[in-house]
Amino acid sequence: MSMPPLDQDGYLCNLDDWSCTVAEQLAAREDLQLSEAHWEILNLLRAFYAQFQLSPANRALVRYVAQQLGPDKGNSLYLNRLFKGTPAKLAAKLAGLPKPSNCL
């Protein structure tokens, strides 16, 4: 499967182009292999986007994960282990969502 069009930052141009296969391809471009823990966060992010129509920044992501999955997973250290750098940006990219607007 070929990669759908991406913007200059590597995010999908069209959210409808996302699939599990595309997520795996995007992860490979980031030198990342998606585990069950990654998928749990990606699916949660997609549900957040479906409800609120925005990609959460880091603090909002941490709070939302804590609400939905508990404090063991809803903390910066856990999310940083899964998604290096800025977890909200990388997780949004892999989930096929727009770049969080207040992430540099």
TrEMBL record:
Q: What is its EC number?
A: 2.8.1.-
Does the entry feature the keyword Cell inner membrane, yes or no? no
A GO BP annotation: tRNA wobble position uridine thiolation
Q: Which residues form a coiled coil?
A: none
| Cited Pfam families | DsrC
Please give the chief subcellular localization of this protein.
cytoplasm
User: Does the keyword Cytoplasm feature in the UniProt annotation?
Assistant: yes
Which UniProt keywords are listed?
A: Cytoplasm, Transferase
One molecular function GO term is: transferase activity
One GO CC term on file: cytoplasm
> Which Gene3D superfamilies does its entry note?
3.30.1420.10, DsrC-like protein, C-terminal domain
Q: Which family does it belong to?
A: Belongs to the dsrC/tusE family.
Task of the protein:
Part of a sulfur-relay system.
What name has this protein been given in UniProt? Sulfurtransferase
The record lists the organism as Pseudomonas fluvialis
